[in-house]
Design goal:
Layout lengths: L10 H12 L4 E6 L2 E4 L3 H6 L9 E5 L3 H13 L6
Antiparallel strand pairs: 1-2, 1-3
Helix pairs in contact: 1-3
Length: about 80
Amino acid sequence: MEIKNRLGMHLRAASTLAQTTARFKSQVSIIKGKNKVNARSVTGLIMLGAAIGTKLKVRAEGDDAKEALRAVQQLFEDRFGEE
């Protein structure tokens, strides 16, 4: 998935993503290059340094993985509700 919001994965976007993934039982990971972080970790998400245009891989494992991926995809498409 591509970061489309102007400010990238900053505090508000990371918090929104973490809150969204916390609603699901599945484990959701965000991967940038060799770095893999838990999507529920705001600090981890910010440490990825994902600016606008950055492409990230999203992986979900668990009973509701498909629903979790859909929710994360919608967040990325909606630019985390910022624009």
